[in-house]
Amino acid sequence: MTRYEALASEIAESIRTGVLHPGDRLPSVRQARASRGVSPSTVFQAYYLLEAQGLIRARERSGYYVAEGARHLPPEPEAASQPENDAVPLDVSEHVFEILESTMVRDVVPLGSAFPSPLLFPLERLGRIMASSVQNLDPWSTVDDLTPGNARLRRQIALRYLADGMQVHTDEIVITNGALEALNLCLASVTRPGDAVLIESPTFYAALQALERLGLEAIEVPTHPREGMALDALERAIERHRPKACWLMTNFQNPLGSLMPETRKKALVELLARHEIPLIEDDVYGELYFGDKRPLPAKAFDTQGLVMHCASFSKCLAPGYRIGWAAPGRFTRAVARAKLTTTLGASAPTQNGLATYLEKGGFDKHLRRLRRTLAEQQTRLAQAIGEHFPAGTRATRPAGGYFLWVEMPREIDALELHRQALAQGISMAPGPIFSAQRGFANCLRLNYGHPWDARTEQAVATLGRLAHGLGQRSAA
Questions:
Q1: Cβ atoms of 285 and 315 closer than 8 Å
Q2: Cα(398)–Cα(290) distance, rounded to whole angstroms?
Q3: Bridge-based pairing state of the strands 307-312 and 324-327
Q4: Cis link prior to 225 (omega < 30° from 0)?
Q5: CA-to-CA distance for 401 and 375, rounded, in angstroms?
Q6: Which ranges of 39-122 would DSSP assign to H, the alpha helix?
Q7: Closest among 3, 1, 27, 30 to 14, alpha carbons compared
Q8: What single string gives the DSSP state of each residue in 265-287?
Q9: Which of 60, 119, 148, 386 has the fewest CB atoms within 10 Å distance of its CB?
Q10: SS3 call for 201
C-alpha cells in the first residue's frame, strides 16, 4: 500500500469496528498531518479515497464526517488476481451467451445486466432533436456519412478530446456501430489467427468472445481491483509470449471498476511502445466518473500512434442508438478500411441527430446529474451487500462506472448462486464468465445503474440469504 492507502485503510477499519460513528468529524488535514507525520497531500488523498468509497462525506467549510451507513460497507478486495501465465485458446461464447440471455428479461431484477437503466438518459429530448434533424437531413448525407462517419459528429468528439488536453484530429476518428464494433475492428486490424493478445484478469467477456471469433489466444495478466493491470506482470508476459496486441480498460474497468492511476497509464503506454505492441483501449465508462475531473485515458500519453482509443455514447447518453467510435492512431486507415468492407457505415440519421444534440449543449449538464445518481446508487448497493452478504465478503468501490465486483467466501459457488437467484427472478453476472480460465468461482458482478427501490433492495437481501445458504451447505 501507498501511505495514503494505508491511512485510508486504518480510518476505514475504525469506522467498521465502531470506533468512529456516523456523523463523527475526522481530524482536519492539519491535525492529521501533525499526528500522523505525513504530508498534507497524503491526508487529502486518503480522504478523497474514503469519500469515493462512500465512507466519509465533505461538508463545505466544515471538514470531513463519517457517512451514514458507512459501518455497513464491506471491505474492498486487496489482492491482484493470479491467473495462470499460459496463452489460452478460447471456448467461452456459448457459456457466456447462456448466462447473459437470462439477464435480458424485463421482469428480472437486473443486477446482472450489462447496461444502465434507460430511464437515466434524456431520451425524450434526444427524440425531439432526432425527429427535427431527420426532417432537415441532406439526402447526400447518406453517402457522405459512410466511413469514416458524419463530419459534424466527428468534430464534436474531437472537441471533447481537446477539452481533456488531447489533440485528436477529426480525420483520425472512425464512427462505428457502438464501441464493441470499434474494438473488434481495431483487434482485427492488428492481429491474425493464432496470435496472442494480452487481457486483464478478470476481463470484459466480450473481449474473450472477440478473441475466440478471430482465432486468437488470450494471455490473462494479474489485475488489481483498484488500480488495474499489474505492469511488472505485463512486462513478463510480453517477454514470454511476444503478443501482437493488448486489450484493456484503464478507466472503471468492467467488471472490477478499477481505475489505473495516470502515472501507471503513462508507464503502460511507454512499456507497450518499447515493444511496438498496439493498445486497444476500451473507454466506454470514462465519462461516468464521480470525482472532479474526467480521468485521462491511456491515449493521452500516446506519442507514437499505438493507442487505439474506443468509446461510445451508449453508456453515457444514448443507449440503443449504437453510435461509437475509434481513434486508432497510426492504424486509422486499416480500421476505416475494415469498417468499409464490413458494415460500411453507421446510421446517417442517428449520427446527424447526435451531432445536433451535442452542438446545442446540455450534454455536460446531463452527465453531472447522471454521475450523482450513479454514485448514490453505488453507496446504497454497497451498504446492502455489507448488511446482507456473508461475513468475509468484499466488494470494490469504484470511483466511476456502474459495476461492483463482489468477492464472497471461497466456499460459495457463484454459478450455483446465479441459478438459484434466477429462479427467484434475480439476475447477476457470475465471475467465471469474465475469465478465459473460468476462474473467480466465488465472485460476481452487480450493476448499480438501475434505480434503487424496495424491489432492488429485497433482491440484494435475497442474494445474501442464498449466499449464506450455499456457504452453510458447503461447510456441512
A1: yes
A2: 9
A3: antiparallel
A4: no
A5: 9
A6: 40-52, 93-100
A7: 27
A8: HHHHHHHHHHTT--EEEE-TTTT
A9: 60
A10: strand
pTM score > 0.70 for this model? yes
Which residue has cell 450534454?
A: 363
Q: Tell me if 306 sits within 8 A of 272, measured CB to CB.
A: yes
Nearest partner of 186 among 273, 293, 282, judged by Cα: 282
d(CA 246, CA 259): 17
Give pLDDT tens digits along the chain (476 positions): 678 888 988 998 898 888 998 899 999 999 999 998 999 999 998 998 888 777 888 888 889 999 877 777 788 898 889 888 778 777 777 777 777 776 667 789 999 999 999 999 999 999 999 898 888 777 766 676 778 999 999 999 999 999 999 999 999 999 999 999 999 999 999 999 999 999 999 999 999 999 999 999 999 999 999 999 999 999 999 999 999 999 999 999 999 999 999 999 999 999 999 999 999 999 999 999 988 789 999 999 999 999 999 999 999 999 989 999 999 999 999 999 999 999 988 998 999 999 999 999 999 999 999 998 998 899 899 989 999 999 999 999 899 999 999 999 999 999 999 999 999 999 999 999 999 888 999 999 999 999 999 999 999 999 999 999 999 887 76
Q: Phi-psi category of 37—alpha, beta or left, where left has phi over 0 and alpha has psi -120 to 50?
A: left
The answer for residues whose C-beta is within 8 angstroms of residue 335's C-beta and 6 or more apart is 174, 182, 185, 186, 189, 308, 326, 328
Alpha-carbon gap, residue 306 to 105, rounded angstroms: 40
Question: In which residue are the cell numbers 446545442 written?
Answer: 360
Nearest CA to 281 among 370, 186, 201?
186
Q: Is the torsion defined by CA of 104, 106, 110, 113 positive or negative?
A: positive
